[in-house]
User: Which sequence fits this backbone?
């Protein structure tokens, strides 16, 4: 099924765990995929090669998203080189899990830069450039409504972007553009293992009815539904992918 034939999608953090899974899934249903990356160009280029060898269309683009000039250049390059932008999936962000009292000034600035500043610039360009009938999705965390210890700065920075995209859904409805948040529980990626301490993962899994982490392909599948024709009446929603965790 080529539900996304003729659609161009920009995936920020496209060489990350969930970004790459989403790139593969959307390319497999016909989308032309712009794989954004910041570092590790070899992963982004290998992913593009893999998609092309499987019969899809993809191209890699580099940008630091906390730099407004680079974000504007990225969107302009995707727009001109891929013939427009229909879908933006913003996965790029960072996680930090520390007691509030121990967070350094430098860590605070890094989270503000990578999560809030970058998210603001991406959503602003998405609002300007996504074509009529398009889709915008951001990845967030279930913890914005189900707080856990050591995650206040992380979750607060995501909540800021949640509010921006939910407001955008009101502004862009007249263009038939949908805008939604996917609020994630634990998803089994390398980033999770690197940033969330094991005791916290065990604690969250023990409170999760499905008693496991999610898989990046389950996130990619949900995104494929939301950006496809069947997702066209869903907008302004925070959709929770948590294995039942309230
Ligand atoms: N895994 C989970 O359980 C879970 C749960 C809730 C939410 N999330 C969120 O879901 C998203 C995807 O997670 P993931 O596991 O796929 O993460 P990941 O593998 O770490 O991928 C994140 C990507 O974002 C990029 N990035 C971050 N800040 C950037 C910036 N300022 N400019 C450009 N690129 C930037 C990273 O680039 P670099 O490689 O250069 O750093 C990386 O490619 C993240 O926002 C994560 O916080 C994850």
Assistant:
């Amino acid at each position: 099924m080529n539900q996304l034939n003729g659609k161009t999608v920009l995936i920020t953090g496209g060489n990350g765990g969930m970004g790459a899974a989403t790139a593969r899934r959307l390319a497999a249903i016909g989308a032309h995929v712009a794989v954004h990356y910041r570092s590790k160009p070899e992963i982004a280029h290998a992913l593009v090669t893999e998609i092309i060898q499987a019969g899809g269309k993809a191209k890699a683009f580099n940008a630091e998203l906390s730099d407004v000039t680079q974000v504007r250049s990225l969107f302009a390059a995707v727009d001109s080189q891929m013939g427009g932008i229909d879908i933006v999936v913003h996965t790029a962000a960072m996680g930090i899990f520390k007691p509030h009292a121990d967070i350094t000034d430098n860590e605070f600035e890094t989270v503000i830069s990578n999560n809030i500043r970058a998210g603001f610039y991406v959503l602003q360009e998405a609002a300007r450039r996504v074509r009529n009938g398009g889709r915008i999705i951001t990845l967030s965390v279930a913890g914005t409504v189900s707080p856990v210890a050591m995650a206040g700065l992380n979750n607060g920075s995501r909540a800021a972007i949640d509010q921006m995209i939910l407001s955008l859904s009101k502004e862009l409805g007249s263009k038939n553009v949908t805008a939604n948040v996917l609020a994630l529980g634990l998803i089994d990626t390398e980033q999770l293992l690197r940033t969330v301490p094991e005791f916290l993962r065990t604690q969250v899994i023990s409170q999760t009815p499905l008693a496991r982490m999610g898989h990046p392909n389950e996130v990619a599948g949900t995104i494929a539904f939301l950006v496809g024709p069947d997702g066209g009446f869903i907008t302004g929603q925070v959709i929770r992918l948590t294995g039942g965790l309230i």
